[in-house]
Specification:
Blueprint: E1 6-16, E2 29-40, E3 46-48, E4 53-57, E5 60-61, E6 63-65, E7 74-76, E8 81-91, E9 97-104, E10 109-114
Antiparallel strand pairs: 1-2, 2-8, 3-7, 4-5, 4-9, 6-8, 9-10
Length: 115
């Protein structure tokens, strides 16, 4: 997907299993990991953040989870790229999982990615 300032590539999505015994999904839920690549195609710096993502499972807002692996947040100079992952906790039996990335805070423009 291309916006006026970013080229966004949806690399992969998979179930994620935490190896930390203290960070586990609640009963009936699982973690989902989605990997994205961002390229700044503008003439000025662009900031990308995992905080600009939302996730909905069967229409319900889901909670974002944070792991040290593949951090997504970066300030990109023109022509530069960054790759990282977002993690959300979703119901095990969810039929539809959607990730939304807000490309413009002021206009609330969003790009939607389906699992």
């Amino acid at each position: 997907v291309e916006t006026d300032t970013l080229k966004i590539s949806y690399i992969s999505v998979e179930d994620y299993i935490s190896d930390n015994e203290f960070i586990q999904p609640k009963d009936g839920y699982k973690y989902v990991k989605a990997v994205f690549e961002f390229e700044n195609i503008s003439d000025s710096d662009e900031y990308v953040s995992s905080f600009d993502f939302s996730c909905y499972a069967d229409g319900y807002d889901m909670e974002q989870s944070y792991f040290d692996e593949m951090k997504l947040d970066a300030t990109l100079s023109p022509g530069r790229k960054s790759q990282g992952a977002i993690f959300f906790e979703v119901p095990v039996d969810a039929q539809e999982v959607i990730f939304e990335y807000e490309t413009n805070f002021w206009s609330e423009d969003k790009v939607i990615f389906y699992r």
